[in-house]
Design a protein that fits this description.
By secondary structure, the protein is an alpha/beta fold. The protein is about 25% helix and about 30% strand. It has 3 domains: about 55 residues; about 110 residues, no CATH class; about 120 residues, no CATH class. The chain starts with a helix and ends in a 15-residue tail after the last strand. The model has no long low-confidence stretch (mean pLDDT about 80).
Amino acid sequence: MEIKEIFNNNNLDFVKNNAKHLKDNVAGGVKESARYVRTNVKENAKVVQQNVITVKRRWYLWLFPLVAVGLSIYLFYQYFYDHGPLIKIIFDEASVVQAEKTRLRFRGVDIGTVKDVAISKDHRNVEVSVLLVKGADRFAVEGSKFWIVTPKISLQGFTGLDTFFSGPYIEVAPGKSDADKQLVFNGRQDSIQDAFENTSVYNMEAVNGESLSVGDSITYRGINVGSIGRVGISKTGQRIEVQMNIQNRYVHLIRSNTVFWRKVGVQADLGLFSSSIKVNSLDSIMHGGLEFATPDNPGPVAKARAKFTLAQEAPKNAAKWNPALN
C-alpha cells in the first residue's frame, strides 16, 4: 500500500508540474503573440500613415488622368455634335478629288470636307464621302445637286479660276427646304451651274466619243438648246452612250426621226472650178458638240429617254429641211 501511494503521489506531482509548465508556456505564448501583434499593428499603422502623407503630398498627380478623361469626353462631344451628317456622292470619275483636301462649297463658303474616296462595289463609279459642318444638314435633302468645279474655258469666258489657287472643289445647289432628308446623291462632272435645270433627257449611241465631252452644247439652227450630260462606254464595250439634256421649252423639236451629228468647226468643199470654206462658231471649233435637224415629214414628238443613233455626218439635204414643228 505504501508503494502504491508513493506511486500515485509521484504521478500527481508529475501531472501538477506538467500542468504548471503548460500554463506557463500558454501564458508566455499568448503574451508573445500579443506583443507581436501590437508591434505589427504599430508598424503597419506607421506605413499606412506614411502612405497617406505621401498621397496627400502628391495629390496633384491625379490631375493628369482626370484631365485626359475630360479632354477625351470633350473631343468625343465635339466630333459627334459639332458636325453635320456624313453624305455620299457618286461620280463617274473623280481624279481631282482628294480625301481631307477637297472641300464642299456653297457660294464660296466651305460647308464640308471630303473624308474618303473609294471605288464602288461594281467598279463603275467613284463614291465620295463628305462630312458636312454643323448646320449644313439642310443640304442633305432630295433635289440637291453636286458637281466638281475645275478650270474651264468657254465662249462665255473663264470659269473656276479660283481652283488654280485652292484646287478643285465640289459645288452644291441645295434642294427645297421642305424636301425629305437624303444621304446618297448622284453627282455630275461638269462645272456649269444649272446645266440640267428644266431639261429632259434623251439617249444616243455612237461608234466613238470623238468631239463629245460633258458640257458640250447641242444646237438647232445655230441656237443652243441643250448640252451633253454624260458620255460613257456601254456595258458590252461596243458602243459609246451619250446622255443629252434638252431644255424643256425645246423638246417639241425632238421628233422620232430627228437626226443628230457632230458639229464641224471648218467645212471645206473643194472642186475643180469652184471651192468654198465654211467656218462655224468658235464654240464648235474649240469644243465640238452636237447639231440636229428633222426632215420635212416630222414624226411624233419623242418621249423622254428615247434613244437615237449618231450619224457619221450631216445629211446632204439637211440644210433644206424646214418642217413646221409646233
